[in-house]
Amino acid sequence: MGPKVKIVISIKGNKNRFSLYYLIVILSAKDKNSNFAGWVVNGTQIALRITIYAGMYRLALGSSDSRFVNGIWAIAISQLIFGCERPQLSIQIGREIKDGTVSMYLLRPVNYINQMVFSYFGRSIPGLSSIAVFGFATAYLITGKIPINILNLPFVICVIFLGIALAILIETFLGMTGFWANDTNGVQLMNHKLNLLFGGIIIPFALLPTGIAKIVRFTPWSMSLAQPGYVATHFSYTLFIEISLLIILWCFVTYLLCLYLFYKGIRKLNLGGG
């Protein structure tokens, strides 16, 4: 009876924990200070950005090249994920570290990192819907095609959400440097540049030398931004499994690094009397 009781309690505890995470996402999405005008402005900015990139791609590849169509749709997907990787999260974490608010989270039933990740995802939902509508509509108007088979859509959505998870975890990791840095602007700026370079946004992977492209492909910035779009436009089950596993691996590594920095940072604050 003893082991069975423990298993039941464990399962119930996990259900309660998942329910709590779900509640955090929903409440954070509703708490977002957004309106329809802001939704349209955000989407318009994304549409203009994709249009500019399309002009660059057209000059480099030509509009008749299949790489052009795939590249524009990959950019639209990367912009969707990029919308979740903004400096607000790392800035918020850095601010809470500096004013000591972070210590209050130790009394809550959800650890600080999980709460930041799920609440930030919830706050990003209105923006994600705007980026998806305007971004995908712009990609279709530019290319006149949708290079994604509807039967593959569930797998594409899955790998996109994995990319979003990695993007948010990277932001969380950057915020954790606030335990030692005066502000996180420096590392945030560096991360932004790496996203642009390795995320396939400025330079399409099709234009990179083969050797460099193979190396860049395995970086976390490529895995979070570029590879979900590549899976969508070059879908195969083998590619989907390979990229999904690599993104999950980077998520796991980044999460462990966040935990390490968080508890090391909390110990630093306690020893320093902060």
Textual characterization of the structure:
This protein is 77% helix and 0% strand. With 274 residues, it is mainly α. It has one domain (32-271). The protein is globular.
Instruction: Flag low-confidence runs.
Output: 1-12
Structural class: mainly alpha
Radius of gyration: 20 Å
What is the molecular shape?
A: globular
Strand percent estimate: under 5%
Q: Mind summarizing the main beta sheet?
A: none
- The succession of helices and strands, N to C, reads HHHHHHHHHH
Number of separate strands:
0
Helix content class: over 70%
| Rounded mean pLDDT score | 84
- Spatial separation of the terminal alpha carbons: 47 Å
Please tell me the total number of domains.
Answer: 1
Count of runs of 4 or more consecutive helical residues: 10
List the topology elements:
Layout: H1 2-30, H2 36-61, H3 66-82, H4 88-99, H5 112-143, H6 153-176, H7 185-198, H8 210-216, H9 220-233, H10 237-271
Helix pairs in contact: 1-5, 2-3, 2-5, 3-5, 3-6, 3-9, 4-6, 5-6, 6-9, 6-10, 7-9, 9-10
Please give a handful of descriptors for the protein shown.
single chain; 274 residues; mainly alpha; 0% strand; disordered N terminus
Give the gist of this structure:
This protein has 274 residues and is mainly α. Helix content is 77%, strand content 0%.
